[in-house]
Design a protein that fits this description.
alpha/beta, 22 strands, 6-stranded mixed beta sheet, 434 residues, OB fold (Dihydrolipoamide Acetyltransferase, E2P), 3 domains, globular, 8-stranded mixed beta sheet, Rossmann fold
């Protein structure tokens, strides 16, 4: 029998213990607990283990709300009280900043939180025909598995989408291409919900009739995607409402396609944008750069402030859509497409953009190393707001800025964009040293 005292949570939401000098990462264990565990992977310096029994439970352990939680991999922390989840994520951010970047913020921002349930406006559900389990399964993958979890609802999806899972299964079960339809992508906008069927074979006329009837009865738009995301097109209805989301505080609506990247949690995104504007403080007379700008989630609110804003994004298609969103909202913004992971591209963009006194960075998980190097060596904006989806890369890039001796880390805090998961989003404010 193997016992362990759980000290903390790691970035995957696993309990961390040290036994005989070796780190042990235990699925489902919580800080402060005494547990019985069984290793399933052993390495010289660490072990991965499954939880067998909780001998002494944490006061923060709760009963999961979702009936499928024990096997579904969509969530990993429903057994952990929500306030405790947020506190643990804040500690993960602080630890990453110190241990990776060797920096500490002068102040910690209050966590950005929103709805804990029915928040997920984007999701990819896998589809698999499993005769032993009754036919078609539609859902997230099981934990640590490529199998599709057996589920008929989802607590983190909006109620109309959650309730639609059984009917979606029934529809796909009737299609001749049911074994050639591996995924359904969901995108929820202000006025419409779109389901994108990933089809590896064209639907027959009979299939098309069934899909049309499903779209009409459910009220969802159905798109078909035969190849990559760029091939997704409306199937039925052909002229339905467009997908968009609102930022009411800034009088902005941002249109998007169902396969575009957007924040999954619209309520938290509104607070995130407001916080970013509070930290950046854009105003008339400022020249602001918005890097990794996407569809204009931050660019358009910056423009609404009266500042002169310049957005840069790697995808030419997203740049075109950002330009369309600016026009639709009556805003003047400049956009350009460039690979911000390349040193030469960053140098060129900063050289051509002119002097910027404020900058917002919202990179993918890889972070923005080449960009932050270019900023402190060539541009030196007085204020940088960095929105991150990975504390480790934020910490690395923060270290670069601080070690340049040109910037201080004024503030940092977490954004609980994905409640009940181990995913940690965060933001930080850097100010130039005079």
């Amino acid at each position: 029998m193997l016992l362990a005292e759980i000290e903390s949570l790691d970035r995957e939401g696993r309990g961390v213990a040290h036994v005989d000098g070796k780190a042990v990462f235990i699925d489902g264990a919580l800080p402060g607990e005494t547990v019985v565990y069984s290793p399933y992977r052993k390495k010289p310096s660490y072990e991965l283990a499954q939880l067998l029994e909780v001998r002494k439970g944490s006061a923060s352990r709760v009963t999961a709300q979702c009936p499928w939680y024990s096997r579904c991999g969509g969530c990993s922390l429903q057994h952990f009280d929500l306030k405790a989840q947020v506190a643990a994520k804040q500690r993960i951010l602080e630890d990453a900043l110190w241990h990776i970047g060797r920096v500490r913020p002068q102040r910690m921002l209050s966590p950005i939180c929103g709805p804990a349930w029915a928040y997920r406006h984007r999701a990819r559900l896998s589809v698999r025909l499993v005769p032993k389990k009754g036919g078609i399964l539609v859902g997230f993958h099981e934990r640590k598995s490529s199998y599709v979890a057996e589920m008929s609802s989802c607590e983190v999806l909006p109620p109309p989408v959650s309730a639609a899972i059984p009917e979606l299964k029934q529809l796909i079960e009737q299609l001749s291409i049911r074994e050639r339809l591996p995924q359904v992508e969901l995108a929820v906008g202000e006025a419409v919900t779109v389901m994108v069927f990933r089809v590896l074979a064209p639907p027959t006329p009979e299939d098309q009739a069934l899909i049309r009837r499903y779209a009409e009865d459910s009220g969802f738009q159905v798109w078909l995607q035969p190849k990559g995301p760029e091939t997704a097109t409306p199937f039925w209805p052909l002229n339905g409402p467009v997908l968009d989301y609102a930022l009411p505080e800034f009088g902005v609506r941002i249109g998007f396609k169902p396969t575009d990247f957007t924040q999954v949690n619209h309520a938290v995104n509104r607070i995130l944008v407001r916080r970013a504007m509070d930290l950046l403080q854009p105003r008339a007379g400022d020249r602001v750069g918005d890097f990794f700008c996407g569809l204009g989630n931050f660019t358009l609110p910056i423009a609404r402030s009266g500042a002169d804003v310049f957005g840069v994004e790697g995808s030419p298609q997203l740049v075109r859509q950002a330009e369309e969103n600016a026009v639709a909202n009556g805003l003047s913004c400049a956009f350009e497409s460039a690979n911000l992971f390349e040193e030469d591209a960053c140098a060129r963009i900063l050289r051509n953009a002119g002097q910027m006194n404020k900058v917002l960075i919202d990179p993918p998980r890889e972070g923005a190393t080449e960009l932050v190097k270019a900023l402190w060596s060539a541009c030196l904006p007085e204020r940088i707001v960095y929105v991150s989806c990975d504390p480790a890369t934020l910490a690395r890039d923060a270290g670069i800025l601080i070690q340049s001796e040109r910037y201080s880390l004024q503030a940092a805090g977490i954004v609980n964009m994905f409640p009940h998961t181990s995913h940690v989003e965060s933001m930080a404010l850097f100010e130039r040293l005079e």
